[in-house]
Amino acid sequence: MLRMESITKDFPGTRALDAVDLEVRRGEIHALIGENGAGKSTLMNVLAGRFRDYRGRVVLGGQEVRLTHPRKAHRLGVAVIHQDLNVLANLTVAENVMLGEEPSGRLPGTLDRRGLRSAAGDALRRFGFRLPLDVPVGRLGTAGQQMVAIAQAVRRDARVLVFDEPTASLGQNEVEQLFVVMCELKSRGIGIVYITHRLAELPRIADRVSVLRDGRMVGTRRMSHCRLSDLTGMMLGRDLAEMFPPKRNEPGEVVLSVRGLSRPGAFEDVSFDLRAGEILGLAGLVGSGRTEIVRALFGADSSAGRCELRGRPFRRKPGRAKAAGVGMIPEGRKCDGNLTGLSVARNLNIGLLDRLSGRLGFLPPKRMRRQASEIIDRMRLVPADPNKSIDQLSGGNQQKAVVGRWLALRPDVFIFDEPTQGIDVGTKAQIYRLIMDLACEGRGVILVSSEFIELAELADRVLIVHRGRVVGERAGPVTEDELFEACASRET
Fold first, then answer.
1. Superfamily of 2-236 according to CATH
2. Of 13, 37, 39, 17, nearest to 5 (Cα)?
3. pLDDT tens digits for range 136-150
């Protein structure tokens, strides 16, 4: 159905794609994976008609085409469902679905609203989407907005659909619904390109998987014929296990005790102990409830149950948790981690203002800069400029800034939720060493990760989370494939 042959794209001083080949068959879900900067987005932007100056051939439906504009790509049947959904929040569901093809009314310049609602309703019902046609899309959740984007694309008779990180913001039920829709699209002969960093999803949904690394196509494999560890090695060009520090930590006494932690509709009756110097992993498939558990533990969400830090109960509110000695590096560093628009120094010192302020409550600038510089040096932030806006740092350096802020507070327990998501390999290795160093200092560490190899190589114990419950535990040496099988077996 789709062949991209020897696709090459240059930016000033950089070759983003180097003679990349990709084939997507009719009625296939084809995963496209690779580290940040591997070229996935660039390749899909070529397919979406966003670049005029690419080299190579694109063959769609047996006919060679030149994709020089997004409208041309749409006319040829190519649609991209971006992670940042291209929906208009102020327009209704029906208006978004029919955008660009609104039926005209009887009088010139008028809109046939009854016809618009009818056509939009038909497009949604094709896939069992039940959405209120007259509600502004901005009032829908992420899953609802995604349904609108899918209906809009399929209504235009898309032959190739690209899903770019579609499960990044979805809960478990929403992920399941999306996978059902993708299988329905596949059964209708639509070719699907599925971009994700969550490798654990691939055995459930992908027929084949292609791996990009440094702008080159490393290879394509049938998903049923390869393991997750094979794909990790292809993405990195080496064994990821080489990047992990040797285990030097020695778990001691219980530092955190959790009993009966529950949040209706998200998770229930979660109980565990965390020891000083221990790295405790939480493993589960997307939507299993891992993030919801640690958010409630830190107090970001309300919950029932009892939590004790070194034998003393603490109220689960972010301020109280911080004061008690619990720190959290959240999954969404842009939304929950950093204060956008402020300087690096302000971000690094935000939790230390009471400690840095003088007797009269003033914040001495020299003291602020000195403290920020200490964190910058320890975390190796680039650029090493405390006056830079946090928004000007790369994703990896923004993540290091969040971690550095908590390091300065020296909590007894660190919660890391997807700490390496969206960062480069070098920064990942630094985060791994930091986590091990914290455990060696006697800190308790809770690690949530979608990358099972991170849990296998770093954690002393791993709790298996399924549908909001802790259903198992793995201790001692374990492989990423064994952890995946433990999580996936609960789905069957």
1. P-loop containing nucleotide triphosphate hydrolases (3.40.50.300)
2. 17
3. 998 887 778 888 888
Give dist(CA 139, CA 100) in Å, integer. Answer: 21
What is the rounded CA–CA span in Å between residue 473 and residue 142? 32
| 243-491: in CATH 1.50.10.20 | no
- How far is 470 from 476, CA to CA, in rounded Å? 18
404 CB burial (10 A radius; 0-12, 13-18, 19+): buried
C-alpha of 442 from chain center: 30
Please determine, for residue 359, whether its predicted confidence score (pLDDT) is greater than 80: no
CA dihedral 344, 346, 348, 349 (to 10 degrees): 160
Q: Three-class SS of residue 199?
A: helix
For residue 204, give the H/E element and its range.
Answer: helix 202-205
CA angle 125, 78, 151 (to 5 degrees): 15
Read off the pLDDT of each residue in 353-367 and give the average, rounded to a whole number.
59
Domain positions in the chain: 2-236, 243-491
Give dist(CA 220, CA 32) in Å, integer. Answer: 9
**pLDDT per position as a tens digit, 99-143:** 877 888 888 878 888 888 998 988 888 777 788 999 999 888 777
Chain centroid offset of residue 273 CA: 28
Alpha carbon distance 427, 425 (integer Å): 5
- Residue 491 CA to residue 451 CA, distance in Å, equals 18
Cross-sheet strand order for the sheet of 279-283: 326-329, 413-417, 444-448, 279-283, 461-466, 469-475
For 378, counting Cβ atoms within 10 Å of its Cβ (0-12 exposed, 13-18 middle, 19+ buried), the class is middle
- Cα 397 to Cα 406: distance, rounded to the nearest angstrom: 15
